[in-house]
Amino acid sequence: MFEDDRATALAADEFADGMVRPDYGGYCFSGVPAAAADRLGVDLGDGLPEDAFAASHTDPAHVVVLFVDALGYRQFERVAGDVPFLRAFQESGRVTPLTSTYPSETAACVTTMATATDPVEHGLLGWHGYDPESDAVYETLPYAASDGGEISVSPEDLFDAEPVYGRLADAGVNPHVVGPDYGSGYDDAGQSVASAHHYERTTEFALALRDTLRAADAPSYTYAYYPLVDSAAHEYGPGSDHADAQAAAVGDALERALGSLDDAVAAETLVCLVADHGQVDVRDSTASLAETGVSEHVETDRSGTPLALGGPRNLHLRVTDEAAARESLTDLDAVVLGRDEALDAGLWGRGEPGAAFERNAGDLLVIPRDGMLLPSSDDADWGLAGMHGGLDPREAVVPFGVAWASALA
Fold this sequence. Notes:
Layout: H1 4-12, E1 14-16, E2 19-20, H2 32-38, E3 62-68, H3 73-80, H4 84-92, E4 94-99, H5 106-115, H6 119-122, E5 128-131, E6 136-139, E7 144-145, H7 164-170, E8 174-180, H8 186-191, E9 195-199, H9 202-215, E10 220-226, H10 228-236, H11 241-259, H12 263-267, E11 269-274, E12 280-281, E13 286-288, H13 289-292, E14 308-311, E15 314-317, H14 322-328, E16 334-338, H15 339-344, H16 355-360, E17 364-368, E18 372-374, E19 386-387, H17 393-396, E20 397-404, H18 405-408
Parallel strand pairs: 3-10, 3-11, 8-9, 8-10, 13-18
Antiparallel strand pairs: 1-2, 4-20, 5-6, 6-7, 11-20, 12-19, 14-15, 15-17, 16-17
C-alpha cells in the first residue's frame, strides 16, 4: 500500500516555505541502515518506526538494502503500476514515505548509509568538498581535485564516522556491498571490511546481487547501490520517459534475477528498497555566482576555483565578507543561512560537527527554491535537466519499501 497521507504530512512540515524539514529520528532516510540491521538483531542506533515494517517482516536470514539512486516517492508511485517488481512492494509488502536528509545529495546520503549517522556527524556535505591543507576543492565520491592536482585528505579522513560493516561483522553478520567500481578513495573508506561485488550494467547489477545472496553465509547484510535512474533524470529530467524506463529496466532485471534464487533463500531474504532523493526539473532556472554579484565575495582555492562547495541546490560559500555576500543574494529565490543558523535549526541532523564538517561547510548556505546556483556557466552541471540536493518535496520525500524476495520474483 501507499501512504499518501504520511507523504503529505512529511511535506507539510516545512523548514521554510516550500521546503521539507528532514524528520531525523523519525521517518527519515538516515534511519534505514539501523532499521535494516535491527531485523538481524544488530543495534546500529536509531532506526525507523516499527510500522515501516509489516508484522511478518521478522527473523530474516539475509537482509538487502536496495538503494536506487533518485527513485523519489512520487516517481515510485507513478511507475510502480507498470513495473511488477516495484508493484510487489505495494501489494505484498509495505511502502512508507520518508524524508531525505539535508542535503538530499548522493555523496551525503551514501555516507549516511555507510555509517548510520546524520550528515552533521559524518561531515560529507555534498559533491564538492575542500581540502585546506592542499587548498583544493575536490569531488568527494570520485576523490579527485577539481584542478586535477593532488589532495591531502586521505580516504580514511573523508568523513568522520565509522562504517557499519565492521560492527555488523563483529556481531556475526556477513556484510556485502554490490556497487559500481569507483576505484580507490571513497570506496576504501566506505566499504571497510565488507565483501565488494562490482558491476557495470543493469543486468550485471541484478545478477551480482543474486549471486551474492546465493553464496552468502547467513546471517548476511547486503547493501546494493544502483545509480542509473539518477543519471537518466539528470540528463533528461525527472519526469522523463528515460528516467521511468530506467526504473523499469532495473526492476525487470531484479525480478528475473531474484526469481532464480533457491526458494528457501528467497523466503528468508528481506529486501528493503530505498532512494536517497528524487529530482526537480531545473532547465529554466539556472544561475551563476557572477549573475548574482556574489562571486567577488567568494574565496578561491590554489587554482582560482571558487570555494562553492556542496552542490548546486545545496551551495556552501566561503566568503570574505558575509554581510556583503548576503546582500548580493537578496534577489535570488533561495533560503540563505549562516552556518550557525543552519546548525541551530538542526538542518544537518543530530550529533556534533567534526573535522570533515568544518572542512566542507561554508560560511553561508544557499538553498535555491527552484533551479541551480552554479559557480559559472562553464560548470559541467550547466544544462542538466534534473537536479537534487535541496528540500523541495519532489526531491526530499523518498520511498522505503519492504518485502520478502520470494514476493518480488
